[in-house]
Peptide deformylase
Amino acid sequence: MRPVGRWSRDTMPIVAPRFARWTLLPVCAKRVRSGDVLNARCCTRGPAEAVRVRRYLRKRTVALRGEAEVKQVGHPALRARAVAVPPGEIPSGPLESLVLRMVRSMRREDLVGLAAPQVGLRKQVLVMELTPDGVGEFSPHLREEWGVSPFPLKVFVNPTLQVLDPEVLVLPEGCASIRGFSACVPRHRSVCISGVDVNGQPVSWVARNWAARVVQHEMDHLSGILYIDRMDTKTFTNLDWKETDTGC
Ligand SMILES: [Zn+2]
């Protein structure tokens, strides 16, 4: 889940800055792959080639960082029901690697939660975290009104959800898989999430207020549900609407 109000990195290219200049131009993928980046511009092949090169560089950069690319709405994994991780794969190297990549991606994109379907994997794996610095980005008024408080890194494999307080709060939220938008979404005030960690040890967490919202948002991802399925449609907002409004 993406906290509304922290969108500055959305518009940044995922490619490394030293490549950013080149990705704006049609360049030769063959030369880029061979490391001959400086001469890549010499043999231009049109916009289609530029798109392919951009995609390649983005993929390489994300892989080199040990991160995972956050998929955007339209990707089939975001609408599929995630399957449980088999007990025989907990713990395992691939599971640890997946969690590590998810945590890195969550932190890089300033998110408070990420589900495996968001990185294209139909697995029941969640990571969530809100640091004190992250809380500081909310105004004192919102912290108080929304009940925002920090929580350490939480990792859940094969989680289940129990509603503890059926009272519903309707507050704005965003999603890294629906970049640039937000909407008000009804969520229960208090829930308990239970599952196992990467080592297979049982873990549970009673989350209240804003943390409970994060848990419910991420749990929805495991069922192929996005916040736009639950939102108050009249509150759906393009967060850049003021920048794109010329006043004409
Ligand atoms: Zn989301």
